Amino acid sequence: MPLSKIKPGIDDNSDATAITIDSSERVGIGATNMDEMLLIQQTASGANTDVTIRSANDGNSRINFGDQSSDGSGRVDYDHTSNYMAITTNSSERMRIDSSGKVGIGQASTDATLHVLGNGARLVNSADTDALHLFAFDGNGAALYTLYDQIGTAAGKIGCAANKLMLGGGDTGLVFQGYANDAIAPFSPDNANIRDDAIDLGYSSSRFDDIYATNGTIQTSDQNEKQDIAGLTSAEITAAKAISKLFKTFKWNKSVTNNGDAARIHTGVIAQEVQAAMSDAGLDASKYAFWCSNTWWEADETYTNDAGEEKTRTRQYHVEEEAPEGATKRTRLGVRYPELLAFVGAATEQRLADIETRLTALENA
User: Fold this and answer.
1) CA 343, 346, 352, 355 torsion: positive or negative?
2) Domain residue spans in the chain?
3) Global pTM?
4) pLDDT grade, residue 263 (50/70/90)?
5) Which CATH number is associated with domain 230-363?
6) Dist CA 119 CA 135 (whole Å)
């Protein structure tokens, strides 16, 4: 039961206009049944409930939080001089929103739309990341942040260390090594470390188109990293001789579809014919790195985009066990031309050397 009702300047006796103090010293304004120490209640249709704290133009408006023995070390503070809002915990400012709406977390600086200082920042569904600065370090000395999709599933990481931008997912990523190295290198976001001889660029089912470069690619050819070095066998020479006759001109189906008669002419081999030439010589093409076969599975799925529209997309699965029932199996064949041409060239050189040996023998006969 209420201990008292205070009704200054109010002529009626309704509870909606009373200040009530109950037996537990809980206060209600416009309310008589309070579960909290202060309850302000306005039930009239369309009415607002506002609480205003005013101070001098050059002062601060504050709400302090303390325990029984002190004013406490937490507060919400509005500075009227600079027009910023600050939140303090444990006697230290932890967050600030300045007059332009910029937010600083972990420190008072707001030199960006969102300025975060501290260990363990997480961003989810960010629509506008312009002028975003993140500073935090993991146990490996790198500032790495996990990015999540709209349902909270980790999609990958982005971060930096020693003036290097790093991004990727799981154990597969890239590090952009500027300044001294001027290179993009394979990288593991999981342990913030460079990887070697581990990551492919593209896949048989998701290929790049053209690569523009000043120089050609460099393949490792160090003897210290090779074994079983040998010349071609007679069967390999036979296969290479047959392959050397398989080079033809052709047009890509996609180019003809897009460009019609203007589609350009390419030169190369047909992977199936290379496989047949190897088989005819008693060899298994799959044991040679110049011949490639990749298999994956595809299945259509429906999803809802950010606009709430239902769409259909094709997902790829590189492991059959992960593919849903009814998924379509796809296989694409290919060749590594540098190795294929080296194979043909080695056979040609050995054949020429054999011819020269025979001619020399005839001349000396």
Assistant:
1) negative
2) 2-40, 60-194, 230-363
3) 0.61
4) very high
5) 1.10.10.10
6) 8
